[in-house]
C-alpha cells in the first residue's frame, strides 16, 4: 500500500481525539470537525479532510447497524461528545462530519467526491486485524471490570463485536485504526510483541512511523 504523507494518525480515528474527554462548548461541533480537517503540517492541503470524509462516508453507507457506529465513536472519543446524550443518531453524525469535510477536500482537489469506492481488502489483512481485536478482548474486559463494568458506557463484548464488524464488513484499515484508538482511551497494556505486530500491520496499511506510538507508552505499564 502506498504510504501516506503524514507520519501520524488520520481519518475518523484521528477525529475522535478532537472530541475526547468532557465535551466543551467553547467551540461548536462543526468548528471542531473543521480543526481536525486542517490536518498536520506535513500533509498536503485537503488530505486530512479527504481521509475523514472517506471514513465517514464509507461507515455511514455500510450495512452496519447504527448502534455499532455509536459504540465505536463513544469509546474511541473517550465518551466525550456523547451522541446518545445529545440525541444524535450515529449515521446523522457521520453525515454531518462528511458535510463539514467535503468543502476543504474539494478546495484542495476539485475532483474530490463524497462517493467513496468500496474497499478491496485482502482476506489476510481482515484476518490479521480480527486476530488483533480478539487478542485484546480479555484485557478490555479487565479494564471494564476495574471501572463500572463498561467502557464509556458500553460492555467490553459489545465494543469488541463492533470493532470486528467494522473490520470485516467495512474496512480492516479503519477497524485497526479504531482498535489502536480504543486501546489508548481504555489504557489497555500491551506487550512488546503485540506492539511489534501492530507496527508490522501499520506498515502494511501504509501508516507513518509515529502512527502506532499512541499506544507505545502502555507497553511500559
UniProtKB/TrEMBL annotation:
It comes from the Bacteria. This is Uncharacterized protein.
Amino acid at each position: 500500500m502506498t504510504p501516506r504523507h503524514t507520519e501520524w494518525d488520520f481519518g475518523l480515528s484521528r477525529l475522535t481525539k478532537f472530541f475526547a474527554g468532557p465535551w466543551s462548548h467553547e467551540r461548536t461541533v462543526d468548528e471542531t470537525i473543521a480543526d481536525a480537517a486542517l490536518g498536520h503540517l506535513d500533509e498536503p492541503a485537503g488530505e486530512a479532510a479527504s481521509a475523514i470524509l472517506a471514513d465517514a462516508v464509507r461507515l455511514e453507507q455500510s450495512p452496519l447497524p447504527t448502534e455499532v457506529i455509536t459504540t465505536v465513536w463513544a469509546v474511541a472519543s473517550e465518551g466525550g461528545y456523547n451522541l446518545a446524550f445529545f440525541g444524535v443518531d450515529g449515521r446523522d453524525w457521520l453525515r454531518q462530519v462528511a458535510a463539514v469535510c467535503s468543502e476543504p477536500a474539494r478546495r484542495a482537489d476539485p475532483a474530490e467526491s463524497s462517493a467513496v469506492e468500496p474497499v478491496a481488502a485482502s482476506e489476510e489483512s481482515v484476518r490479521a486485524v480480527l486476530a488483533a481485536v480478539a487478542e485484546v478482548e480479555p484485557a478490555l474486559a479487565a479494564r471494564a471490570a476495574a471501572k463500572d463494568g463498561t467502557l464509556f458506557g458500553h460492555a467490553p463484548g459489545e465494543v469488541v463485536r463492533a470493532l470486528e464488524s467494522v473490520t470485516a464488513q467495512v474496512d480492516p484499515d479503519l477497524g485497526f485504526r479504531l482498535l489502536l484508538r480504543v486501546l489508548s482511551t481504555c489504557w489497555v497494556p500491551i506487550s512488546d510483541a503485540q506492539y511489534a505486530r501492530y507496527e508490522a500491520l501499520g506498515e502494511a496499511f501504509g501508516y507513518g512511523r509515529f502512527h502506532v506510538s499512541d499506544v507505545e507508552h502502555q507497553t511500559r505499564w
